[in-house]
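Subject: mismatched residue count in predicted assembly?

I count 250 residues in my input, but I want to confirm that the predicted structure covers every chain. Input:
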Amino acid sequence: MLVLSRRPGERIVIGTDIEIVVLDLDGGQVRLGVEAPREVPVLRSELLAQIGAENRRALARPSAPALAAAQAHVGRGPSPRRPAPPLERYPAPRER
Amino acid sequence: MEVRTTRFGAPETVTVGDEALLVFPHGLPGFEHHVHFALLEEPAYLPFRWLQSLHDPEVAFILLDAFLVCPDYDFELSPADVTLLQLDEHALPRVYCILVVPRDIRQMTANLKAPVVLNPRRRLGKQVILPDDRYPLRYPVLAAQDARQAAGVR
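Triage response: the counts match. Full output below for your records.
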């Protein structure tokens, strides 16, 4: 692992289009700013770990009768088809 | 295609058409190497569906239509995800959530924090992590439904 020492206001650059700036230090906490292209996902790593752990929990498989019971509660048959969400919520990617 | 699954515990084989085969280019969190999936949809089990990994019969997620779980579910896909999933006006997304179904089904929860978004037309999928905290990781499916019914809302 590359280890760098930085002071507030100083930056590091990753590749050509990702920059991380140290904004502030407060006790044991550091505030970072990340500038990255919109297509680069930036997540707190514990959030990703949390989703992964929840996915692993989801592997526990119900028995067929348990699922049938759940079916009775949730409602059988095809799910109600909502009208398709308006397209502007799924904007077409912009041309570069 | 014949798909092997242990969705109920015992090994079984389910036959699916090509239209059920999906690619998750980045896998799913915790399952990054699982790229190929089949969506198992059978009338007898609807509205439940399974997202079955083709890499391992034991990796299968139970899905429920996110709008069935939460009728006013609402989030915005990032442009990056729209691009990855090749969504456009001819290929609209379908949105599911992964269920955790414990022995006591009253405790069933749905992951609304990280919905599974599919493009059935291009047969692509991604589990999207929503950046804000509007929706929980463990949404109580049946409790919420009961509350809606009690309030006279469907």
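The mean pLDDT of chain A is 81. Marking this ticket as 'not a bug'.
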